[in-house]
Amino acid sequence: MTEELPLLRVLDLHKTYGRTEVLKGVDFDVKAGEVKALLGPSGSGKSTILRLMALLERPDAGEILLEGKRMGISASAGKVRHLKERELARQRTEIGMVFQKFNLFAHLDAVHNVMLGLTQARRVHKAEAREQAIEMLARVGLSDRTGHYPSELSGGQQQRVAIARALVMNPKVMLFDEPTSALDPELVGEVLAVMEQLAAEGMTMVVVTHEVRFARRVATEVAMFDQGQIVEQAAPEDFFDRPAHERTIKFLEHVH
Amino acid sequence: MEWDGHLFWSALFSKEYLDGAILSVTLAAASQVVAVLLGFLVALGRLSKARTARAVSGLYVWFFRAIPTLLVLLLVWNAGPQLFPVLREAWFSPFLAGLIGLSVVEAAYMAEIIRSALMSVDEGQSLAARALGLSPTRVMFKVVLPQAIRVALPPTGNEFIAMIKYTSLASVISLRELLTTAQNGVSVTFRYAEYYVAALVYYLVIVSIVMYGQSLIERRFRWVSTRPLRTGLLARRNPTMTATKEPKVVVTKVAQPEGAK
User: Fold this and answer.
1) Is the pTM of this model over 0.90?
2) Which of B124, B132, B231 sits opposite A148 (nearest CB)?
3) Assembly ipTM
């Protein structure tokens, strides 16, 4: 039996800030088309691992492999070195990232927010980029908001623009860092709907979230983080209905 | 009251005054441009991760804020040629000396304005730009700088207006800018009021034009959709209006998830 190679592979990641060891050796695989939900209390290292996967920070130890390729590192002629920021930038285009606070570019309207990665990181021609951006905004249900600036959009709309902005780069994997935590409750649904649609279309996703119901319905696998480690990892039905680890049981009691 | 209207008007419309005013504005504009560019570099140095860059730029700001501009001009114009023979050539004009002196001093102040403007831009946006795959230079020029400019505009307007008046210091290096022109008129006729008031009128007109120009530039940095009334005005008075008034979002090809709340 041949094992399918995972699209994204995280091997023994360690990260320390000052004296705080945030990640104490984290491993997991994400197969193509999988949706991995990362749950856990704040400060457990979930967001840090996303930042490392997005190549925004460098791990102290461990590896991130995308399609078998070691990210953030160049190994030529037996010499291993960390990539420079400029080289990292190229690798980052393959990974989409959505932030808790949207982080839209305040000086650009929705369509230009979505275009910027194409024109500035991919050198796509402006007219072509605009076309793709408009198409992508339509996919997240914002055809009528293309000319609006972030300050003129609701939180849910801003987050959907942010998703379109990442998606238009045609990434191999999408990372979501608590994408609905900064939203008013009534705006959460529209963002989750877009994410669910994305999952249904086969996008590979890693989602840090507190939305337990979303994780149960959409995720193919759920991982429980605690104190810089994964303490339990299972398919959603097992994870939520038959949690094995004591920490998971306790956590689920709180969020239910 | 002893007021010679004819003298005032002839001074006001004289070629000397106009030339002086043009010289003042040209020198101020050129110095301000150089100062902004140099100040940007110094600001980058101040914000750099490299210790030497921070030290050098810190030293620059300290030095040029500490010494009087007048002294800098005298050093550039008089001490410069004494120390460096190349500066004794004809190309080293008072205008050039004034430009160098005024811009190096102003760059120290601009560096601090630009530094605070750069710091004011939400870090999440450069993070998002990096995540998209923009190179560090593009993150700076496409995301951070456009927003920093908006913050830096009002204080830079201040600086430019001050700069126009600072050009009068260049009289010490024999530059016939606006105030020197007035002073020359006075020294020939001993009529103070007419000549000084003529200069005053020029300054008022110049600064009014600059302020108008600044307001035009600031308007370009408002970042609201230009469609009037419906979004522009409404959205700014009540940011939640556009959000709450719109119909329920329908995501294409997706059913609303039943559990999502």
Assistant:
1) no
2) B231
3) 0.92
